[in-house]
Specification:
Keywords: Signal
Radius of gyration: 18 Å
Strand content: 5-15%
Number of helices: 1
Order of helices and strands: HEE
Mean pLDDT: 78
Strand order of the largest sheet: 1-2
Largest sheet: 2 strands, antiparallel
Length: about 45
């Protein structure tokens, strides 16, 4: 029964991904924040 619930969970994730309902919020390996895909630049001068 637990295995079937796990498969149902994976199927739900797969369906959500197929319909574009999931998003990867990580920007890159260094985890710098972005705003609409553009890197924030802090200006000290």
């Amino acid at each position: 029964m637990q295995f079937l619930l796990f498969l149902l969970f994976l199927a739900a994730l797969t369906a959500a991904s197929a319909f574009g309902l999931t998003a990867d919020t990580r920007d890159s390996a260094d985890w710098k924040p972005t705003e609409e895909g553009r890197r924030w630049r802090s200006r000290t001068c």
